[in-house]
Write a structure and sequence with these properties.
By secondary structure, the protein is α/β, with parallel strands linked by helices. The chain is built from 15 helices and 18 strands. Bound molecules: iron/sulfur cluster (SF4).
């Protein structure tokens, strides 16, 4: 029996309060549904059919806010994963935390239970901006949460930051980056705010109430982040992600290489053997389906080799190492230069893509329009 490497994602769809920009599948938590959902997630792990041929290199608990009022329930899910799957001894086991719902006992329990990487949603070290975003913590609370995480033994910490925020200027962004760097986390993510339909920010934007930085400022902020973080010793290894050597997020690398993963929890996505499916998003319906033993699949899509290849190129282009041409050719049995001659010809002419026989990489000029470049390969 050959073993397959399959990562695991667990979605905890609850937060203390929803942030004004958030379009994730998450709900402000109330009462028994939280406990019921976490129990149902654990049961859905225990009920997995025949996981014997799977080894698990990475696990990621995201959300939502898994740094939860009752972390025991999170630990029970992790224990269920360990007893149902062969988790590799050196597996990366991450948990997302919100600095507003964290304390020493909680962090300590998560660390003791085997979580070895913490991803902290800080977004900005600026109280006015945090308030505008609807975050439940202050900059000082984020600093304290970070210190606490270190003290209880987390040696691999990511800090999530956002830029191009309403009324944010370049100096504020520089200060946020300086503070983040001064903490010396192993990993920093920097995402530009996107205003998503259905969010309070979207409505405010339509009513002209959101004073967003213009495109040029947005670009300056992004370029500044690249300069400042690489100068501070971080590798810019993905469009929005920076890591100290040896600390790339192994779980996200699975996504960017279009490798396989199983998702547990409401709305969690899985991708295995060319099929992608999404679990029921609504927590109540998810719990009901687990209790009834009925299907948890809300949506399913079968990807043929061509669609899968296009997605692999698109995702790998996000990596600064770019597309590993020989590896992708071996995986799909195609000559990439022939299959994508039109796209690479055009992108090379525009100096957006650097092409060698072994690698395709987005150039520095191409980075600000990376999403459009990646989309070229989906057609
Ligand atoms: S904490 Fe994260 S998941 Fe929860 S509402 Fe805010 S942005 Fe969304």
């Amino acid at each position: 029996m050959s073993l397959e490497r399959v990562s695991i994602y667990v979605h905890i769809p609850f937060c203390a309060r929803r942030c004004a920009y958030c379009d994730f599948n998450t709900y402000a938590w109330r009462g028994g549904i939280v406990r019921d959902t976490l129990e149902a997630i654990r049961l859905s792990v225990e009920n997995v059919d025949e996981p014997g041929d799977i080894v698990v290199p990475t696990i990621f608990f995201g959300g939502g806010t898994p740094s939860f009022p009752d972390p025991e329930l999170i630990v029970r899910i992790l224990d269920a994963i360990r007893s149902r799957f062969r988790v590799l001894p050196d597996a990366e086991v991450s948990v997302e935390v919100n600095p507003g719902t964290a304390d020493r006992a909680r962090y300590s329990l998560l660390r003791q239970a085997g979580f070895n990487r913490l991803s902290m949603g800080v977004q900005a070290f600026d109280d006015r901006l945090l308030k505008a975003l609807g975050r439940i913590h202050t900059a000082n609370e984020a600093l304290r949460a970070y210190e606490t995480a270190r003290q209880v033994g987390f040696e691999n910490i990511n800090i999530d930051l956002m830029f191009a925020l309403p009324d944010q200027n370049i100096q504020q962004w520089q200060k946020t980056l300086r503070t983040a760097v001064s903490l010396q986390p192993e990993h920093i993510s920097c995402y530009a705010l996107t205003v998503e339909p259905g969010t309070p920010f979207f409505r405010m934007h339509q009513e002209g109430l959101l004073n967003l930085p213009d495109e040029e400022t947005d670009l300056r902020m992004y370029r500044y982040a690249i300069r400042a973080l690489t100068r501070a010793g971080y590798e810019h290894y993905e469009i929005s992600n920076f890591a100290r050597p040896g600390y790339r997020c192994r779980h996200n690398m699975v996504y960017w290489r279009n490798e396989e993963y199983l998702g547990f929890g409401p709305g969690a996505v899985s991708y295995r053997r060319g099929v992608r499916w999404k679990a029921i998003s609504n927590p109540r319906r998810f719990v009901q389906a687990v209790r009834n033993g009925s299907s948890l699949v809300e949506e399913q899509e079968c990807l043929d080799a061509n669609a899968s290849l296009g997605e692999t190129i698109m995702l790998m282009l996000r990596l600064r190492d770019g597309v590993d041409v020989p590896a992708v050719e071996a995986r799909y049995g195609v000559r990439l230069a022939e299959r994508y001659a039109r796209q690479i010809g055009k992108l090379q002419r525009l100096r957006l893509l650097e092409v060698t026989p072994d690698r395709w990489r987005i150039t520095a000029k191409g980075l600000p329009v990376a999403n459009s470049i990646c989309a070229e390969f989906l057609a």
